[in-house]
Structures are given as C-alpha cells and as structure tokens.
Design a protein that fits this description.
CATH superfamily of the largest domain: Calcium-mediated lectin
Strand order of the largest sheet: 5-2-11-10-9
Strand content: 25-35%
Largest sheet: 5 strands, antiparallel
Order of helices and strands: HEEEEEEEEEEEEH
Oligomer: single chain
Structural class: alpha+beta
Distance between the termini: 75 Å
Length: 189
Amino acid sequence: MKLLNKILFTVLSLSAVLPAYALDSSAVEPKTLLATGGNVRVTFLSSDADYSSDLFVTGKSDKIFNNKSTFFGQTFDLGDFAANTAITFSLLVNNTGYQFYSGFTSANPDNIVHSAISNLGNNVVAISFEDMFGGGDYDYNDVMFTVTNAVSTNVAPVPEPESFAMLIAGLGALLLANRRRKANKTLAS
C-alpha cells in the first residue's frame, strides 16, 4: 500500500508538468485497457480544456466525473473487475455533443485516436483525452487521469488487403516450388 501511495503521489506531483512535455508517439496508438483483477479506481489529474466534458466507463450509465467540477487528486471507485476484463472509457464533450472513446478508432465519429494511454508500472495506467473532432490540436491534455489495477496493451492492427494478397502469392509460390521439386524427384527416379 505504501508503494502504491508513493506512485500515486509521484504521478499526481508530476501531473502539473505533463502538458509541457510531448507525448511519446506510442501512447497515441490504439490500445486496449485490461483490468488486472480487483478494485479499479480512477484518479483525476488535470484538464486543460475549454470544453466541459463528462467521463464514463462503457457499460455504465453514471458519469465518473466532469472535468470542470472535479479537483486534482480526486479518486473514484469503479468497483471490482475480473482479470483481463476490457475497460473502455468514453468522453462526452458537453459543448459539442461529440463522444470519443479510448481504444479502437472506429468507435470515434472521426476515426481518430482520441486517447493517449501509457503504462506507468505497478498496474497504474495514465490516460489523457483529446476533446476536439478531427483531433483538434492533438495535445491530449483535455482530460487526464490514472487508472489503478489495469494495464494497457496494443490493439493488433487489422491487416490490409494488400498484405493478404502478398501472403497468398507467397504461399502459392511455395506450393508451386514444392510441387516442382516432387515432380523432378519422380522424373529422376
């Protein structure tokens, strides 16, 4: 518990300077958030947004917090989650009506990644949202929070049709070469 408190204190202390640093590009790739098992908590870090936004966890109708009325360090209990349960957050931007999701870009109305997700270690994940349609300024500092008892994993990219075509052509070439080798072996016998 002391280690978790130290980590939380460090994260909260550093959150004031988070907007000043550029994000690692891997943080803005589509990622899946998985519970590690047990009680999952969200801690509000900061918001540098003009818009008022509500944060939700998919599957629950109650908002977790509003970025304009929540204080730094405020923690919210999401309840117990079984290990490897996917957790998706959504950000409802009250001023525009747009809703953006963590994880897959296809869930977002503009097909753009709207959340930067980074593993901080010890089952703590930092998440920050971009609240503007089309990506806006891509600063991912409009709503920032941590999630405890969770880890993030990269979403596997969907292979493009060209990749499948090259794979099939390669397999076809291997089969043809194997068939020729067998035919040559039969003729030589």
